[in-house]
Write a structure and sequence with these properties.
The chain has 162 residues and is an all-alpha fold. The protein contains seven helices and no strands. The chain is elongated, with a radius of gyration of 22 Å. InterPro entries: NinB_sf, Recombinase_NinB. Pfam families: NinB (PF05772).
């Protein structure tokens, strides 16, 4: 029997899971391999839809400002992503504090280290909730600071709404 996973987001999903168990439990018992049910909460990584929306927005900003997508991505990581990681990851916060100490001590390596940390930060490891927050920051910045209206296509609206 194939492994089955049922994300439960509505009552209809509960019905699907129960129907699957109902359909397959006799065969499983007859084979001497009873069904095992595991229930947990899972926090998915950011979705590919959120990623598509983000890079689409970077393209829209690039067309309006002339600044290329990669440099926009770097600037947004510096402005917004660092804040999210620093708030949500204690080890990362400690790293940022150590870098800030280098800056205070006028250490020459400060800029190189800080830039490398920014480059290594990635939206890939964000949860869906964190990526939504990041998208909100990028959207608000584009509208208020760059005066760029960002579009959200109908097929991606679900991945942006909080």
């Amino acid at each position: 029997m194939q492994k089955a996973v049922f994300p439960i987001q509505s009552h209809a999903d509960i019905t699907k899971a129960i129907n699957f168990m109902h359909t397959n439990y006799t065969q499983a018992i007859n084979e001497g391999k009873p069904l095992r049910v595991v229930i947990d909460q899972r926090q998915d990584d950011r979705s590919t839809a959120q990623n598509r929306l983000y890079w689409m927005w970077l393209g829209q900003i690039e067309r309006k400002t002339g600044q290329d997508k990669d440099s926009l991505h770097y600037e947004f990581k510096k402005k917004f992503l660092i804040y999210i990681y620093r708030r949500d990851d204690q080890e990362f916060a400690e790293t940022c504090n150590a870098i800030a100490m280098l800056k205070q001590n006028e250490c020459e390596e400060y800029r190189v280290i800080a830039e490398q940390v920014i480059r290594l930060c990635s939206t890939t490891k964000l949860s869906i909730k964190q990526m939504t927050e990041y998208l909100n920051y990028v959207h608000d910045f584009a509208v208020t600071q760059l005066h760029v209206h960002l579009t959200v296509p109908d097929d991606l609206k679900w991945c942006y709404q909080d």
